């Protein structure tokens, strides 16, 4: 077996592409076969040399031992590695989800700040508009007063009624503005 140089997954010599990442494996497989052949040839040379009786004895002994034990041990290690890779992928997925959620929360916070700024501007514009309406009303009243017939000094009751009427109008406007502000504050909360 050989391992992919890109992702580390193991593969057989005959495979042309890595099943995990798609990397071309022909060259790696070819080199691995050549190295394997060189090692086999050297090993055979060593075995055929009469001076190396110890190696022959080891070979005979290893033929009697099952190779399956080592293969099973490696298999269990590969299973552990594969399960760790799967866990790593899950943790990365969770981290990506948390990062996306944090980004959404940051965007919500920025939008809240913008809404507060726009509300403040709206309140300022509303107050200015209210002042302008009051000025316009006073101008109209002055114009009506000037255009009205003979000028007589109003009695104290007429002045008081006019003042009370003007104050009532102002109070009504302020109450409406207060209701609007309270509705906007509830929306923000």
Task: Provide a quick synopsis of the model.
With 189 residues, the chain is mainly α.
Write the layout of secondary structure elements.
Elements: E1 2-3, E2 10-11, H1 26-48, H2 53-64, H3 68-147, H4 156-188
Helix pairs in contact: 3-4
Q: Would you kindly provide a written description of the structure presented here, covering whatever features stand out?
A:
The relative contact order is 0.04. It contains four helices and two strands; from the N terminus they run ββαααα. It is mainly alpha-helical and 189 residues long. The radius of gyration is 46 Å and the shape is rod-shaped. A hairpin with a 6-residue loop joins β1 and β2. The chain is 78% helix and 2% strand. It has a domain of 68 residues.
User: Alpha-carbon distance between the termini?
Assistant: 63 Å
Rg, Å, rounded? 46 Å
Strand content: under 5%
- H/E element order: EEHHHH
Order of strands, main sheet, comes to 1-2
Structural class, please? mainly alpha
Write down how many β-strands occur, each being a DSSP E stretch of 2 or more residues.
2
Largest sheet: 2 strands, antiparallel
Residue-averaged pLDDT, rounded? 78
Proportion of residues in helical segments: over 70%
Helix count, DSSP H or I runs of 4 or more residues? 4
- Assembly state of the chains shown: single chain
Shape: rod-shaped
Q: Which parts are unreliable, with pLDDT below 50 for 5 consecutive residues or more?
A: none
